[in-house]
Amino acid sequence: MSLHTLSYVGFNATDLDDWRQYATGVLGMQVVDQTADTLRLRMDEKHHRFAIHKSAAPGFAYSGWDVATRAELDRLTTELTALGYPAAEGTEAERTFRKVVDLRVFTDPGGNRVELFYGQLSGCPFTPARQFGGFKTGELGLGHIVFMTKNMDAMMAFYGVLGLTVSDYIFIKPVQSRACFMHLNARHHSFALLGGPQDVFHHIMIEVNSLDDVGMGNELALRQGRKVTMSLGKHTNDEVVSFYTMTPSGFELEYGCGGRTIENEEDWQVVEYDDISFWGHLGPLRAPV
Ligand code: MBD
Ligand code: FE
């Protein structure tokens, strides 16, 4: 086991107050702190899972992946360097902000910043912004992230070195493109790639423990006037029931529950689905309306 989990993410946004309203009022996250430049958000006992950085260019900033030891960090650095992806050492300011002990920074084949670390501060008290049954995280990590890429093979090779293996594929008819879903723990996918004309972040998914909280999140998103980009639906491959909203960073967030897990690697069959969902998820990737 080289990596354990997707542990934190960083995003850029022009309006931190808007992110705060969205994260607390719709998603149920706790604000750890907010300055003129940054907003940090808690989902569980980890110090923070989301960091929002004030920037003129909204979008994805970085993903943070948990590695067991410094020896593992060195081994992965060697392998990625050999593949043509050298590491930069994280600065002390970066380690301090992220609340991690050791940090290595890479750039994936799509130009996305990837951070490998160990020793994220944990054991913090979590008080959700609204009463609900909590986020499903722990050994499964914070959720999943998805990139569109024009270089599927190179991206799969890079993330393959990190220990991600293919769960399944979906051919998505409305966009005539294949998506690849990958896992590194029992979560069906922590990472996915969608073939497309450019390298750009597509969406992040976070999971809650109860269907009621997905329904409540959907209502709260509508009440806040957030754009629901894909209606409530149930995915074919991971069986997650979810909906998607536009975030203040200009990409989508999927809010769901009920994901199935991959418990036994030996018995797992890699298949290709021909639709993203059993029902619902009306939007650009399925039955556009
Ligand atoms: C997902 O999580 C997803 O976002 C899509 C588009 C298809 C299957 C599972
Ligand atoms: Fe998803």
From TrEMBL:
<keyword id="KW-0408">Iron</keyword>
<dbReference type="InterPro" id="IPR029068">
    <property type="entry name" value="Glyas_Bleomycin-R_OHBP_Dase"/>
</dbReference>
<comment type="similarity">
    <text>Belongs to the extradiol ring-cleavage dioxygenase family.</text>
</comment>
<keyword id="KW-0560">Oxidoreductase</keyword>
<keyword id="KW-0058">Aromatic hydrocarbons catabolism</keyword>
<keyword id="KW-0223">Dioxygenase</keyword>
<dbReference type="Pfam" id="PF22632">
    <property type="entry name" value="BphC_D1"/>
</dbReference>
<dbReference type="InterPro" id="IPR004360">
    <property type="entry name" value="Glyas_Fos-R_dOase_dom"/>
</dbReference>
<dbReference type="Pfam" id="PF00903">
    <property type="entry name" value="Glyoxalase"/>
</dbReference>
<dbReference type="InterPro" id="IPR000486">
    <property type="entry name" value="Xdiol_ring_cleave_dOase_1/2"/>
</dbReference>
<keyword id="KW-0479">Metal-binding</keyword>
<feature type="domain" description="VOC">
    <location>
        <begin position="141"/>
        <end position="258"/>
    </location>
</feature>
<dbReference type="GO" id="GO:0051213">
    <property type="term" value="F:dioxygenase activity"/>
</dbReference>
<dbReference type="GO" id="GO:0008198">
    <property type="term" value="F:ferrous iron binding"/>
</dbReference>
<feature type="domain" description="VOC">
    <location>
        <begin position="5"/>
        <end position="119"/>
    </location>
</feature>
<dbReference type="InterPro" id="IPR037523">
    <property type="entry name" value="VOC_core"/>
</dbReference>
<protein>
    <recommendedName>
        <fullName>VOC domain-containing protein</fullName>
    </recommendedName>
</protein>
